[in-house]
Design goal:
Blueprint: H1 2-22, E1 29-30, E2 35-45, E3 48-57, E4 60-68, H2 77-89, H3 101-117, E5 136-141, E6 144-147, H4 151-162, E7 167-171, H5 178-181, E8 187-188, H6 193-198, H7 204-212, H8 218-237, E9 243-248, E10 258-261, H9 267-279, E11 283-286, E12 288-296, E13 299-307, E14 310-315, E15 318-321, H10 330-336, H11 355-362, E16 367-368, E17 373-379, H12 391-394, E18 399-401, H13 415-423, E19 430-435, H14 436-442, H15 444-447, H16 449-457, E20 461-464, H17 467-474, H18 478-494, E21 514-526, E22 529-531, E23 537-539, E24 545-551, E25 556-557, H19 568-589
Parallel strand pairs: 5-14, 6-7, 6-15, 7-11, 15-24, 22-25
Antiparallel strand pairs: 1-2, 2-3, 3-4, 8-10, 9-10, 12-13, 13-14, 16-22, 17-21, 18-19, 19-21, 20-21, 23-24
Helix pairs in contact: 4-9, 4-19, 7-8, 8-19, 17-18
């Protein structure tokens, strides 16, 4: 009996083992036609993971749903374009969407991952035949055309619409925002409400003198200084932009005067301007590049534009150029300043290729200051992207050292001075250091978590308990670094920086963990561009205006001389965006 029981048990165990061994994970439904089902995939974008669900029917891509992402608002519009391609062609996209390279690559990787999870080789997808239809040409008439939908363009469009004009906006990228979207978007506003609360003495004359030191046009600088505060108030009260309840101190400014948008990012400004434009019913055509200004004698009376599926001929009474600068156009950079070649990366939007400058020249405009190209000192050595963690420097809580562990520049000097000092170091990099107290004060962990993770993943940021660990991570002289920090803390106790006379409030570096980033200068702003007068009218070489043509923002030159001060650009695009929109609408009614 016992023997029979043992045999029965052995048989049962064998059955259980066989059953367990023969159990396999659930496979996708596979028919003779192919694989059907929904499969998730993950790719890494600039803001973190991009998660999608990809639906297949008989190994054909039917749909793609974005489940999760943390990309900058606007950049996610690339997902729709890539989805349309994938579904329309039954192929994995091979080209990224212009202006959204990192987001596009992350989305494409997510598609590949989903196909892999479905057990399907991307190369095995059978491409659909797609018939190309002839492009339709649309002709219409409006009062004002705005070319470029960044901060200046959206501001001009809103103001023109509020003045009663019928407005149409063209943007060549598939989303709005321009450089404003990817900036910190701090705003220099002399005499602002936070200065009053903190007891900071400031006025328009002081701001005027600070900006004018770079050699700009006095009339334009005066216009900027006198209207900067009103522009910030307009953004706050009309566009509903939220400002933080604190200020930043940018290099080159005499006092701390720079307002900070919510989240310390241009997303706040562009999101609110876009919402306002939508509420007003302003028509914005994205993915449509203006290729020509229509002239009637010496007057500008419209534009021609090319989109992916349609072309446009738009007749108008006036045109506002707000296409940004040319920081992403290496050929144009080298033409005007041979030193700024392709060895130097750029923080700029890929849309910053000087299109508006070329358009203005075709109508007879004169250019000014094209050789003046600004570098931003604290940028990603891999991509050239401006690093938001550098906000800590503007809270006056960092020091910058070189490979030898020595300070080499005042951390609140001008962008040009810091960039040139970095380029002169033995390896061409700067290493910015701060402590946990500085990180807490600047709130970088709350405002920029995705960037922090990206920098850690790529070895460009270390957060360590000791200065030795920071030095070891980047191969910096450990003893020299510790001696530099000790000397710096002594300067803080003494109340003065004996080496570089750093302005503002001095902060010690003593509370671990310690943060250190590796950074490189990159092209950030092109100060040169189209010559305008104080009314934002575009000028010819003889100083006369081109009737019907206005310009605002980085497409213009003459305001910032040879070195733009940090946070003066958002004031510039707002002040002259308002002026251009108001005057373009007024001109259209004459």
């Amino acid at each position: 009996m016992k023997r029979n029981f043992k045999i029965i048990c052995l048989v049962l165990i064998a059955i259980m083992v066989f059953t367990a061994c023969s159990t396999t994970p659930e496979k996708p439904e596979e028919t003779t036609e192919g694989i059907t089902g929904s499969f998730e995939g993950v790719g890494k974008g600039r803001g973190g993971d991009i998660k999608i669900s990809l639906s297949l029917k008989d190994s054909t891509i039917e749909a793609i749903e974005v489940l999760e992402h943390s990309e900058t608002p606007g950049y996610e519009s690339s997902f729709e374009e890539l989805t349309n391609y994938a579904v329309g062609h039954n192929q994995v996209p091979t080209d990224v969407v212009s202006g959204a390279t990192l987001a596009s690559n992350g989305f494409i990787d997510a598609i590949k991952d989903a196909l892999k999870n479905a057990g399907l080789d991307a190369e095995a997808l059978v491409a659909k035949e797609v018939e190309k239809s002839d492009k339709e040409t649309i002709e219409e008439t409006v009062d004002v055309v705005v070319v470029g939908a960044g901060g200046a363009g959206l501001t001009a469009a809103i103001r023109a619409k509020e003045a009663g004009a019928n407005v149409m906006v063209f943007e060549k990228l598939p989303f709005v925002g321009g450089n404003t979207l990817i900036s910190g978007a701090e705003y220099a506003a002399p005499g602002n409400w936070i200065q009053e609360k903190e007891g900071i003495e400031d006025n328009t004359d002081l701001f005027y003198e600070d900006v004018l030191k770079a050699g700009g046009n006095p009339e334009l600088v005066r216009t900027l200084a006198d209207n900067a505060l009103d522009g910030a108030i307009w953004l706050r009260d009309d566009a509903k932009v939220q400002w933080e309840d604190e200020l930043m101190f940018f290099g080159g400014h005499t006092v701390k005067r720079s307002l900070i948008p919510a989240g310390a990012s241009g997303k706040e400004i562009i999101t609110k301007l876009s919402k306002k434009a939508e509420e007003l019913g302003i028509r914005v055509e994205v993915g449509a590049r203006v290729t020509e200004l229509i002239l009637d004698g010496d007057k500008v009376v419209g534009v021609k534009a090319e989109g992916e599926s349609k072309d446009y001929i738009v007749n108008s009474k006036s045109v506002v150029l707000s296409t940004g600068g040319f920081g992403s156009n290496v050929e144009m950079r080298v033409k005007y300043n041979p030193e700024i070649d392709d060895s130097i990366l750029s923080t700029n939007s890929p849309g910053s290729t000087g299109d508006g400058i070329i358009l203005a020249q075709s109508a007879g405009a004169v250019l000014v200051g094209m050789e003046h190209i600004q570098l931003y000192p604290i940028c990603d050595p891999l991509t050239g992207t401006l690093l938001y963690v550098d906000d800590t420097r503007l809270y006056q809580v960092t020091i910058m050292v070189n490979k030898e562990g020595q300070r080499f520049v005042e951390e609140l000097d001008t962008r040009y001075a810091i960039s040139m000092a970095m380029k002169a170091q033995s390896d061409g990099y700067g290493y910015e250091l701060w402590d946990q107290a500085g990180a807490d004060l600047s709130q970088i962990s709350e405002n920029h978590p995705a960037e922090i993770q990206y920098l850690k993943d790529n070895g460009l940021l270390v957060v360590a308990e000791t200065l030795d660990e920071c030095a070891e991570h980047f191969g910096i002289d450990k003893e020299a670094l510790k001696a530099t920090v000790e000397k710096w803390n002594g300067y803080v106790d003494a109340g003065a920086d004996a080496d570089f006379n750093k302005r503002g409030t001095l902060h010690k570096i003593e509370t671990g963990p310690f943060w250190m980033i590796k950074a490189v200068p990159a092209v950030h702003h092109t100060m040169g561009g189209v010559s305008i007068d104080k009314d934002a009218q575009v000028l010819r070489e003889d100083g006369t205006i081109i009737p019907g043509l206005f310009a605002a923002g980085e497409v213009t030159g003459g305001i910032h001389g040879d070195n733009r001060l940090g946070s003066a650009a958002i004031a510039d695009i707002t002040v002259f965006g308002i002026i251009a929109g108001d005057n373009a609408a007024k001109y259209s009614k004459e």
